[in-house]
Amino acid sequence: MNDPAPEIVVCADLETCVERAARRIVSAASTAIGARGRFAIALAGGSTPEPLYESLGDSPGRDALDWSRVEVFWGDERCVPPDHPDSNYRMARAALLDAVPIPPERIHRIRGEEPDPEYAADLYERELHRELSSSPRDTPRLDLVLLGLGTDGHTASLFPESEALEEKDRLVAAVKASTPTLQPPVVERVTLTPPAINAADEVLFLVAGEEKAPAVEAVLEGPREPRRWPAQAIDPGPGRLAWLVDAGAARSLSDLHAPEGREP
Ligand code: 6PG
Fold it and tell me: How many angstroms separate the alpha carbon of residue 63 from the centre of ligand 1?
């Protein structure tokens, strides 16, 4: 998939993945804050990251981070209001943001409630530039992008055969995807595009569950076909991509790494 291959850490269970992800995020944050005075993270949606967000919102994670210097973004959002049960913002707000002292102006949600998702995408692209670019020509650089993986190989809201996978310039796109793996089967989303994600200093996939094993194998060990397996379009460059995968999701990988257990 990538050359060189991404770092793959197989954890015994989701709890161990969460523990390692939290440590990586705290480490990335202290590096970024030390170097640039701020840590810009894009959160993933879905259900897998929720225990990670709860962990970061509880000690020691909460106390290890200077939240006044953290800028929170999202990798994607559903086209729903911020208080809708499907909202990625709502989940992160409940699991993390309400538990930490982050200034409200440092929370940059995607406006899923906008009647025109294209307008919401345009607004978000402008916000990324305003907050993360030193000049209009520079690509905004997030410090860390957290991603999940769907059973169909989608990540963020980059779905198979999506035109957003071909984006070379736009950083944020509105997408309409029809896929049997989602409920409802036709979804409207706003998503970061590969150029926005691949500009990040670090990209971290967090994947758990046996149902993800075929997609994990196809993405990491199958032939390169990103239109079929969109997570293959994520390639930030050498040493900047890592996968934290639990044993169930890793079970189809050929050279299965010995699952790492929880810290004693
Ligand atoms: C979303 C996410 C999406 C998610 C995968 C995995 O908005 O749903 O951005 O890409 O990460 O669908 O979802 P689960 O973690 O719920 O399996």
Answer: 27
Nearest-CA residue for ligand 1 atom 10 is 156
Query: pTM to 2 decimals?
Result: 0.95
End-to-end CA distance of the chain: 34
Instruction: Give residues (CB < 6 A) around ligand 1.
Output: 44-48, 75-76, 88, 148-150, 154-157
Phi, psi angle pair for 140, to nearest 5°: -55, 135
Starting at the edge strand that comes first in sequence, how are the strands of the sheet with 144-147 ordered?
A: 7-11, 241-246, 202-207, 144-147, 39-43, 70-74
Two structure tokens written together for 235 = 């390639």
User: How far is it, in rounded angstroms, from Cα 197 to Cα 214?
Assistant: 23
**12-16 LR contacts (CB < 8 Å, sep 24+):** 12/246, 12/247, 12/259, 12/260, 12/261, 12/262, 13/208, 13/246, 13/247, 13/262, 14/48, 14/51, 14/208, 14/209, 14/246, 15/51, 15/262, 16/246, 16/259, 16/260, 16/261, 16/262
Model pLDDT for residues 183-218, shown as the tens digit of each residue: 777 889 999 999 999 999 999 999 999 999 999 999
